[in-house]
Amino acid sequence: MKNADLQSRRLAATPRGVGVMCDFYAQRAENATIWDVEGREFIDFAAGIAVLNTGHRHPRIAAAIAAQLDSFTHTAYQIVPYESVVTLAERINAAAPIKGPAKTAFFTTGAEAVENAVKIARAYTGRSGVIAFAGGFHGRTMMTLALTGKVQPYKAGFGPFPGEVYHVPFPSTLGGVTPKDSLAAINQLFKADIDPKRVAAIIIEPVQGEGGFNVAPTELMQGLRALCDEHGIVMIADEVQTGYGRTGKLFSMEHHGVQPDLITMAKSLAGGMPLSAVCGRAEVMDAPAPGGLGGTYAGNPLSVAAAHAVLDVIAEEKLCERAAALGERLVARLRAAQKAHPGIADIRAQGSMVAIELRTAAGEPDADAVRRIQQRAQERGLVLLSCGMYGNVIRFLYPLTIPDAQFERALGILDEALQA
Ligand SMILES: Cc1ncc(COP(=O)(O)O)c(C=O)c1O
């Protein structure tokens, strides 16, 4: 089977709305390597969009899934429950930076986790308003699109969206937005648009993912916590992309010493199996009445088995520490590259959530440069992802389990792609 044949069949059989980045088709993958149907080898710096912090087919995770396959694959947790969900909730409750007793509910996708976090916040507060950030990404369902602060390509043509959602600017050094500006914008909303007593939740990605790997400063997190406390608003940290070791901590919020009321998680939670969760203060989590939360596949046994193994691997292989170390190595390389490549306008990082922003000599966002670098890297066997409001950011999302020699090889390819 040739990539070109598959490409023409794909275009005929599936809609263009499901945009596909690569023009090669996966055959097999292991840890940080993907082989395509023509036998070519690629180093995977996309990791299934931040899903594979533990790499492709980690033996521990594959064994856990295989063992669960021999017991049962589905009973619908809401009909016939099983212990693994309870134990996983206990483990997440103990690990997540939530103040006081915590509870966790499981779902399937990141968007579903965010949807449910909003439902829980509304049930708890009896209010409807939600404040989110420009440039944020929270999913592709109607409510999560409403929360998403990026029109192209996500929102265009799909409205109207659920109401009572407000956006404020996210801090950005290049954009000249400070944490004080963001907090002032919220206070301005309270004056001009919505009574704070009608706001159920403020939702924030601790590091904006799709929005360009913008790292939220601690000052902003502290300010949001204070505003939420003052007005009885539920603070939601969307850790779907930042969670599970990527930033050098299990959860990015741990960098700030600020405890949100709810945390959404998905992606690397189950090492490639579909699973998401909302963990939060027990009192808040218990607001919806029985039957108000759930889903047919929520807490799928195979995914839950994988999630247990993911937690074991993160602890045993010290992946949080490794995320910090690999991130430092990459940032050092990028700083060196920046000297010869003035187009690199900014290097942003929290652990192994690392990105470069490309600008033209005139200071304009340079999405063309991103495409060229991606193309050259891919020709040399390295898969890179873009992001950012203007598509002018390259994000690096390698598996944290990547062997040192392969990481070094990837950095060599990156140097070449940046220089060419
Ligand atoms: C921060 C954040 N929230 C929510 C989502 C939506 O997750 P999913 O695509 O699993 O629905 C994403 C996906 O990229 C994300 O990065």
Automatic annotation (TrEMBL):
It comes from the Bacteria. Its cofactor is pyridoxal 5'-phosphate. The keyword Transferase applies. Coiled coil: none annotated. One of its GO terms (molecular function) is pyridoxal phosphate binding. Keywords: Aminotransferase, Pyridoxal phosphate, Transferase. InterPro entries: 4NH2But_aminotransferase_bac, Aminotrans_3, Aminotrans_3_PPA_site, Class-III_PLP-dep_AT, PyrdxlP-dep_Trfase, PyrdxlP-dep_Trfase_major, PyrdxlP-dep_Trfase_small. GO terms for biological process: gamma-aminobutyric acid metabolic process. The keyword Electron transport does not apply. Belongs to the class-III pyridoxal-phosphate-dependent aminotransferase family. This is 4-aminobutyrate--2-oxoglutarate transaminase.
